[in-house]
Task: structure prediction
Amino acid sequence: MALVDILQKIEKDTASKIAELEKSFEEKKKKLEEESEKQQKEIDETMNQKVEEKSAKIIEKATTLAAMEAKNQLLQAKRKIIEAALGNAIEALVNSDKYEDVLSSMLKKADLEGDVEVVPAKGREDSTKKAITASGKNYSLSDKSTNIQGGFILKTEKIEIDNSFETIIKKQLREDLEINVHKLLFT
Result:
């Protein structure tokens, strides 16, 4: 075999090997690209799923917070309405034609004995004096009045009982009145 034939055979073998290597390289490259693409799709799907889950949680939380805020605002509005209704009830008692009768009835129910002084609401001294007389109690009218809308305060040496309309309606009877007012206004 001549040197030229040997070189041609080497060239042919080398070309064949290069072609095989290129083909093998292309196949491996294509396989890696496909695997990479598949992994990227899986990553994208996982990320999209996580984003959707987090978005759903955020929306759910926002909806819950919005509902709670709406309930709080409704509750505050109801409380304001109830507070206004209680204020109107006090105002109605104070301005009632039966103011003296209400005071007289309250005084009759008082069970204090001895030296009892009745402190009237400011500007309601005459009505309170008439109510004491109508009640039949041996209570004396204080020469001082107090800054309440209506009602009176009973005083002895040892105790003081606040029978102002504000205290009776807004403190002592508030819970029951709130329930009844709520039923009347909101159901």
